[in-house]
Amino acid sequence: MKTAIGILIPFLGTTIGSLMVFCMKNTINKKIEKLLLGFASGVMIAASIWSLLIPSIEMAENQGVVSWIPAVVGFIIGILFLLIIDIAVPYFEANIGKGKTSLKNTTMLILAVTLHNIPEGMAVGVAFAGALSGNAGVTFASAMALSIGIAIQNFPEGAIISMPLRSSEGISKCKAFFYGTMSGIVEPIAAFITILLTSAVVPILPYLLAFAAGAMIYVVVDELIPESQKKVDSKLGTIGVAIGFLIMMVLDVVLG
Fold first, then answer.
1. What is this structure's pTM?
2. Could you write out the DSSP letters of every residue in 33-93?
3. Is 25 left (phi over 0), alpha (psi -120 to 50) or beta?
4. 204: which DSSP letter?
5. Higher pLDDT, 207 or 198
6. Strands (E), 107-225
7. Measuring CA to CA, how many Å separate 197 from each of 10, 127, 141, 208?
8. E strands along 89-192, which residues?
9. Distance CA 124, CA 129 (A)
10. Are the beta carbons of 119 and 208 closer than 8 angstroms?
11. What is the pLDDT of residues 75-130, one digit of tens each?
12. What is the per-residue pLDDT across 18-49, written as a single tens digit (0 to 9) for each?
């Protein structure tokens, strides 16, 4: 029972963050929108470094692998994966008769955060698997602390999906909340599968962490930052990046 609760806690953080979309008015001030897009970029950059790339390097070292290889390989694959999706989406949109911007932005943002959540869920699964196996280095308390820490990190991540989708894409609040929530459902699923298949999953986890980092950085550089810098008040986007980066960095370091 404790394990089931533990692997669901990160999902709760994403869900609560996604609820923030209901605090918005029907439309959002353009200045706030740019600040929010910048904030999302900062959060994702910091998460890519402290939640994904650094743990990937440390985990590779613990496995006796050349520390930078999984990070480099996974990061490149993550970039290429999103690049292929970026090229493919307009093709599919042309065939289903939809405008490029809406589906593209929606797809890319949700994919990036969802891919980021998968290895985080696997990390929680590894922690609880260690506790269940009686590993002296891992207790239920430490596994639960990790789960709560990720949940706190997931709060802004849920918000940066649901709120920009509402403000930039004009998606309804309920649908934006649904997308934000669903980006986090992969975490308990990944955690559960990892507990069942720990011995098989752990060796490739460094690659998966870096893969998610590459995917997130691609979206930040290709989508979020350019949107935040369009037309007037572009410096608000830059300020948002700094705020988001600092908040996520502190969360990752303090709770890591």
1. 0.72
2. HHHHHHHHHHHHHHIIIIIIIHHHHHHHHHTTS-THHHHHHHHHHHHHHHHHHHHHHHHHH
3. beta
4. G
5. 207
6. none
7. 20, 13, 22, 15
8. none
9. 8
10. yes
11. 999 899 888 877 776 655 555 544 444 555 666 777 777 877 887 788 788 778 86
12. 898 888 766 667 787 788 778 878 888 888 88
User: Which two three-digit tokens encode residue 144?
Assistant: 């639960």
Q: Which amino acid is at 27?
A: T
Instruction: At 148, list the tokens.
Output: 């709560």
What b/e string do you get for 149-173 counting C-beta neighbours within 10 Å, with b at 16 or more?
Answer: bbbbbbbbbbbbbbbbbbbbbebeb
User: Cα–chain-centroid distance for residue 113?
Assistant: 3
| Three-state secondary-structure class, residue 139 | coil
Structure-block tokens of residue 234: 């572009």
Which residue type sits at 138?
V
Give the tokens for residue 38: 């910048």
Distance CA 202, CA 121 (A): 12
Average pLDDT over residues 176-191: 89
- The label of the residue with tokens 């999706």 reads 85
